[in-house]
Amino acid sequence: MNSGTTLLLFVFIYFVGLLVISYFTSRNSDNQSFFIGNKKSKWWLVAFGMIGTSLSGVTFISVPGTVGKMTGSEYIYGGFEYYMMVIGFFIGYFIVAAILLPLYYKMNLTSIYTYLGRRFNVEAHKIGSIFFIISRAIGATARLYLVVNVLQIFLLEGLGVPFWLTALVLLLMVLLYTFEGGVKTIVITDTLQTSFMIISLVACIVYILSNLNLSFGEAYTILEQKNYTHFINFDPNSKTFFLKTILGGIFITIAMTGLDQEMMQKNISVDNLKNSKKNMLTFAGTLLFVNLAFLFLGGLLYLFAIQNGASYGQINGETITNIFGFKDSAGEIKNIMGDDLFPALSLQGHFPMIISVIFIIGLISALFPSADGALTAVTSSYCVDLLNLNEDKNKTEKEKKYLRMKVHLTFTIIFFILIMIFKALNDKSIVYLIMEIAGYTYGPLLGLFAFGIFTKFQISKKYSILTVTILAPIVTYLINYLVTTYTDYRIGVELIVLNGLLTFIGLWLVRHKSYLKLV
Fold first, then answer.
1. Which of 60, 101, 222, 313 is at a distance of 20 to 30 A from 140, taking alpha carbons?
2. Which InterPro entries is this protein grouped with (predicted)?
3. Phi and psi (nearest 5°) for 408?
4. Distance of CA 202 to the CA centre of its chain
């Protein structure tokens, strides 16, 4: 049995374990089990499982790969600069716990976009849901594509398996274990998957330290000497200027966690507000350590690769620090910087088989929480917000469940089509661009919720909310283009703040002068 077949066998065993969990958790399940787990989820299970959902496969393979980058390129961060974003995330989770969670529990929501319907009108409710579905579908499938592509290039291509079959099988795996139980199932499976992801992280760190015969402190000292550990970018014109990155991290968390049905449906599946806050803050604190560990691993991966013959590219004797890899027979460096670094070392014979197995299980564990949560959340949002399934008195529970399953299957097909579109584009920079475009759609959600929470004004003109939420991202894009073209300043993750602010201003301009009496 060759190494590729061995790794696939472990993937199969892992998936069988997920199906067993799904069988037991989905027994006697109904639509409320699928949407919010009957509000019986344990807060500590949700907190731990959300680590895997937040990190995703992109974090698992991308964040370590950025550490060795030192110059401008498609890899935005270098060294430990990404950690400034993590600090912003941490602050943002406290804001979500203090403002948004109490609101959702007070209104006893199944879909968080129901708030927009009660606060404004049906138009706002449906717009919020549509923006979320578009955002999550594009963002989740972009992340899925990156991980599927890694599995394809480094493992399955050599076995003659076509890309489309890899993508289809992985999506069917996710569909099978979420089809019945939904949130009730993924709260448990995400906990298992997060465990394997962290085991993989720790095992790789321990192995590399042992192989290089270094202690933790000695390794960190070497990373410092190579300038791999710099945290703060002081250039205010840079996309990763530390204050912009922290600010962007705060608002990304508010929008992409607090205003995101996928993330919040797990939080509101906890039995009460107090425990839901415990979940959020425990999860936030844990992410500080986990992300730092991934960055440390990234530095170790570069040290290991250099020790085993890898090097940076050179032109006319000068080092080019956005090209890194091993030389082929012709003496040319095959660039593995970024997303390819961790997979290349793990799956191309540089690590022993046991570490390769742990890596592949960790990678699959990073993929599934991102996919299962997204698929369940877009299904929930479509059924609750657009089809009004919970309010439909003309359908029996059995008919509602059948309709929900049809929607779930339909979104699985849509996810597959989007992954194949990313494959047809076959350009890593295009994927980053598409993910950035998906980020534009959270700005209108940020502005809508902010206007609803911090003002008392109504929006009564028909289609005025639709007009504002379409124009705000367009104006944001134009501002970004003009600033980039005519100045040295680079708008980074603060783009979502600008987008939300323009939405808020637009809503203010079309507001009705009468106040809302009570939400």
1. 101
2. Na/Glc_symporter_sf, Na/solute_symporter, Sodium:Solute_Symporter_SSF
3. -60, -45
4. 21
